[in-house]
Amino acid sequence: MIALLAMPLLLVLFSLGRAWLSEQGSLAAMGCTGCLVVPTVQQDLALLAAFLAATALWLGLPRYVGWLAWLIQGGLVLIIVADLITLAEFGMRLSWRDVLKFGGEWGAIQGYVGTKATAITGTLWLIGVGILLSSWAGHLVAAKRLGQGGLQRIIMAAAVCFSLYALPTTAYHPLPWLYRNVVEINLPSGVDRAYSEAYRSRVLAAYSPPPLHCIQGRALRRNVVIVIIESWSWYHSQDRLGIMNATPQLDRLAQRGTLWTQFFSNGFTTDHGLIALLGGVAPLPPVNRYHSLEGYTGFEELPDSLPRRLAADGYESYFFTTGDLEFMDKGKWLKRLGFHKVEGDDHPFYQDAQRFAFHAAHDGWLYDRFLHWLEQEVPPKRPYLAVLETVTTHPPFVDPETGRQDELTAFRFADAQAARFVEHLDKQGFFEEGLLILTSDQRALSPLHTAEIKAFGPAAPALLPLVVLGDSFDSGKQVTTAAQMADMPASLDYLLTDRGCQEEGRGNLFAQPPQSPRCILRPQGNQRDIVDAYCGDQHAQIQLEGDKTRILRGILPHGKTLIEQINVQRIRAGARKVEFTHIL
Q: 387 CB contacts (<8 Å, ≥6 apart)?
């Protein structure tokens, strides 16, 4: 009997573990202890019912087709465990859209899995796999020994599990993805709902873009270096939240420069961050975008990108990273964005470097490469924009010095390298003619902390650090005006050149005083058909559903106009073709 129940009880244990992980962060801040246990287990009873039904099939079918039952059970166990791991590692549920999106990047996947397998947590997971397989085999063997009577009892158990699942959910929460089972959250959603031809024609014909406002710029004409520190988040700052003392040097630099305390990301991944920060648009997903081969699909031609804006005033733009530029075709996209030169992990400078995630050398190599470029290759008599994208602090957070997988030590390493970089810039006199911008690509893909929720409320998943050093920005000031990634290109154009143009309703980080955007849009990571809208003091959620795109929760000023702008952007981006072949 124990062997028969081992696997079903293990699945229930997985369900309890998922409930506990889901309760961390925002729900913990509201005193939710155990509030998701019952609804989570109830939703997962459907999967347990399917597992037991497959056991019944295995008992009742001829032996030569019994493999069908194994296939069903193996698939169920695989997605349940993968969902639990994804939630524990990244604070997100397993999405088959991400499987399609990243499925062809075997090099990155193998590197990540290899790193996890060599860590202590990887060893524990291997032990867990052993327990899982032995429990599964024991369940099937015990079921076989029960004979015909056992078959009837297993069918009855499956029916009871499904009946309990079918009952009304005992608890309501505005984020149902927290407790719904992994199959339910991956059913078709509104983000892939196509717009009807009649709606497309009507909306595009009636749409009038926001008027363009042009004002005299500040014309600083300084060189600009933007350092995008992978996954750098407010919870890493002891000064800001006191959760983790991972970035003491960056905290010190924030005290020296100008710090934006309400700087919003426009997405939840690196490609989202680059599209917004360098492209100047919110990365609203085109229809089927999450099924496409390329993360930058639908954003190939951005006429108001940062490189193109500055090129009109004589700037040259350069992109440096130690990461793999072939990953999701990022290198090709950056060139189409207008960068004059793009460097990645294959540059000869990194030939002797040890490699980590995404075949990347650690951050110190990236900074040394740029300093070498600054001394010997910088364009004469022309201002430049240089963007440096780091990789060291990408999950699984490997510390290059010790090889340990540990978020704190990985960020301490990255923090020390960033401080060393700024010290060298100081010695070389960079700040006499240059500005340095330090920010992140996204909030780290990890569960929200209670302190973040208490400090930032609904904006907790979106807020990122932003520090500017050089010239009048070395003031130790804090800017509390809301700002967003997507306004960086137009804001830098205004700051550096003699004329800045921006659509009505957009913000300007460097105006005096700074101007906040009317609304900030950010697609969610867990509910892919939901876009968070932060408009002044208001927060609302917008449901993407083709013609029926609408405000789902909250009240927004100019809501109808905002929905129209969202629909027009998504329609113009076009629908993407769903691809599977890149996984093969």
A: 225, 226, 228, 278, 317, 318, 319, 320, 339
Q: At 32, list the tokens.
A: 């939710």
More confident residue, 119 or 29: 119
Tell me the HSE value of 366 on the side-chain side, using a 13 A CA sphere. 30
The C-alpha atoms of residue 414 and residue 408 are separated, in whole angstroms, by 10
Band (580; pLDDT cuts 50, 70, 90): very low
Which residue stretches of 280-341 are H helix?
Answer: 306-311, 330-337
According to DSSP, residue 390 is labeled: -
CB 516 within 8 A of CB 534: no
How far apart (Å, rounded) are the C-alpha atoms in residues 397 and 395? Answer: 5
φ and ψ of 469, to 5 deg: -120, 145
Pairing of strands 316-321, 341-343: parallel
How long is the chain? 584
Where does the pLDDT of residue 23 fall: very low under 50, low under 70, confident under 90, or very high at 90 and above? confident
Mean pLDDT of 13-19: 91
Q: Sheet harboring 520-523: ordered strands across? A: 520-523, 530-535, 538-543, 550-553
- 3-state SS of 220-260 is CCCEEEEEEECCCCHHHCCCCCCCCCCCHHHHHHHHHCEEE
| Report field, pTM of the whole predicted structure over 0.70 | yes
DSSP 452: H
From the centroid of its chain, how far is CA 523? 10
CB 286 within 8 A of CB 575: yes
